[in-house]
Description:
- The chain is an alpha/beta fold.
- The chain has one domain (39-163): K homology (KH) domain (GMP Synthetase, Chain A, domain 3).
- 39% of the residues lie in helices and 17% in strands.
- The protein is built from five helices and six strands.
- The radius of gyration is 26 Å and the shape is flat.
- The model has no long low-confidence stretch (mean pLDDT 80).
Amino acid sequence: MAVLTSLNILQAMQNFVVKRSFHISSAVNKSKAGRYKITLKKNKPLTYEMANPPHHVAHRKSWNSWNTSNIVDGNRPMESTIEDMFIRRFMTGTWHNLFLSEIIIKRNHNMVRIAGLIRRQFDQKKMYFLTGYTEELLSYYLHCPVKLELQSVEKKENVIYKYI
């Protein structure tokens, strides 16, 4: 009799384990990292890159840094990351309150290209001066040619994709 009850208990435990399973997919769908909170009045402006959720990075939007040094046996992976941080801080400090989009850094062989949308706030002479100043200082610091690819927009409202 004792053997039968222990077998019954063992079978009951096996049935319980088989029937009881964990569903991980529902927790993944509830992730909130990288998403913007919806406001009550829906007056918060978002650009195109900000409006796309994080799981669409490879499909709808692009990465903000293109470099191949992070692959296996790549050259200088840590230095490229630190240089990208320095470039972004240098650009936001030099072009203060002029960038309307995120700063995109592309590395092709020995050349660094920096792209972004800026506001047309002052005359062309200052714009050309800042472009030359930035290219010259960054190329001196990074020891490679630096090229700025900037597009200007009249108003900040022209960059807004949607409101949340």
